[in-house]
Design a protein that fits this description.
Layout: H1 3-26, H2 32-54, H3 57-68, H4 70-99, H5 104-111, H6 113-131, H7 134-163, H8 171-176, H9 178-197
Helix pairs in contact: 1-2, 2-4, 4-6, 7-9
Length: about 200
């Protein structure tokens, strides 16, 4: 699957989420926070699609070559259903928690539903890592390591700033943004390392 096809999948998911938000607003009379969540999901996928357009041509060609290999095809086949599942479980989780669940264990299970999709994503990524060649595995592991160190440093520094009352960030928001920041850092670092090694 080419990067261009991925971009169109992102556009499709983003538009579907926005249509769902519109239906929730005008036909189903959903609460504003549910509509806003679907607008956010749709906008996120559309921003992701736009990012495909600003990537350098050499990077898009490299990705097309990597994902044309059997390991890359298996990874991508596993990835897009996980992304859709994540969006749906995020919606269901937030919707059910906001409606009120009395049982704390049940509320905990419902709250972490989206994390199951992330666990499936990690499983697919680890399988991909085991199946690729040695050079690509080196690029991947260095990218993951550098991104982990960078995000850990930023999180630690933010904790120190929070303790010194320089900033005031809600702990739940900070924790939720760790994984997306890790993914973004990994992507940027992987582009730099790929350019260096290839």
């Amino acid at each position: 699957m080419s990067m261009r096809r991925w971009m169109w999948i992102f556009v499709g998911i983003g538009l579907a989420a926005l249509l769902l938000a519109a239906a929730g607003q005008w036909l189903l009379r959903w609460p504003d926070e549910m509509v806003g969540m679907w607008v956010g999901i749709g906008a996120g996928y559309l921003v992701g699609a736009a990012l495909f357009l600003v990537l350098p041509r050499w990077w898009r060609q490299h990705c097309d070559e990597m994902y044309a290999l059997p390991a890359g095809r298996r990874y991508l086949r596993a990835l897009w259903p996980i992304m859709v599942g994540y969006s749906l479980t995020l919606f269901v989780s937030i919707w059910l928690v906001k409606r009120g669940i009395e049982s704390v264990p049940l509320r905990a299970v419902v709250a972490v539903l989206p994390a199951l999709a992330i666990a499936l994503l990690m499983r697919a990524a680890l399988r991909y890592l085991r199946e690729i060649d040695e050079l690509q595995r080196r690029i991947e592991t260095e990218s993951i390591g550098a991104a982990s160190l960078l995000v850990s440093l930023l999180y630690f520094a933010a904790g120190l700033l929070q303790k010194a009352k320089v900033i005031d960030v809600d702990a739940a928001v900070a924790m939720i943004w760790v994984f997306p920041l890790l993914c973004a850092s990994y992507g940027i670092i992987k582009i730099v390392l790929t350019r260096r090694y290839l």
